[in-house]
Amino acid sequence: MPPAKVSTPALICGDDEFAVKNRAREIYDKWCAELGGMDHEIIEAGASNSGEALNRISRLREALQTLPFFGTGKAVWLRDCNFLGEERAASAQAVSETLNDLAAELKAFKWDNVRLLISAGKVDRRRTFFKTLEKIGVIENYDALTADDKDWAARAEMAARSAIRQRNREIEEEALSELVARIGPNARQLENEIEKLSIFAGDRKRIEFADVTAVCSQNKTTRAFALGDALGDRDLPRLLKRLDEELWDVKFSKDKTEIGLLYGLISKIRAMLLLREMIHEGWIKPDNDYNRFKAQLERIPKEKFPADRKFNPLALNPYVLYKALPQVKRYSRSELVSAMDLLLRCNQRLVGSGLDEALVLQQTLVQIVATQAVAA
Prior knowledge:
The protein is an alpha/beta fold. Helix content is 59%, strand content 8%.
């Protein structure tokens, strides 16, 4: 959690643009309220070339040296600065040298009645300017959530809770998990969906599961979950439709591949297999109440599972396991083991056979769902 009181100068940075802007605005408004007066300044620091970057630095120097006429102090915000990292404007020698000079000035500056806030994207931590701010002030870094982060769901839930509390509302646990599962690691869209939910709930203080399913959309990042859910439900028509949608996206996205889709399906089957084993051991009892299900997970001794997060069901988002509960009943243990073997062979064919990737994936999923469903 960010500190309640922020000293000056303060650098708020990171590739999570939404979090950076929100946090910087929070600090600036707080400083303005504390200092009073009308001398505060916001300097737009976006620069497309070195000349513009030098102009922004010059304006900052001028703002720092202009003493406040009213109130007890002055807050200066260098907003959306884009020449502290590896951008083109930042690479110019004149900008680097000027930033070094500015760092020396800030180090010797008397901060009695002036506060400086800088908001920026990614910054170069090797630069003298960054190291100086780190020594004399405070730096808060906000990295954007990605699906590769093991704890992205927990961090997204924390951010969502905070945004909901700011609107003087509450949310059901299951509704919160469904919201995060639909939106994925996207802070800006999460905030937008919470605003929609608040409006939709009207006079009701508590946001419910039905509200989320009624008004919240799924973004592209989380559509892969729909593919896994169709597999878990053994719904072949829906599964093939979802697969076609994903394969279409693969054609136009450099970040998505057929292998990536396969790994998502492997993760789904592995989660179901691990969940079935937990039920078999008596650690988990199927429960339609999400809170009680989470409580069961928390009571399982951690030493019962391997340290490798890939094989540790407790490392998964509890909501992923909860949604898989009814799906586990649709597969026997031997069918899930067989499904893992089929997906492994699918991986080998995708990598080494030269066959059409879409056809290989379709054949594998039909084998897992349709053929075994007849025998089940």
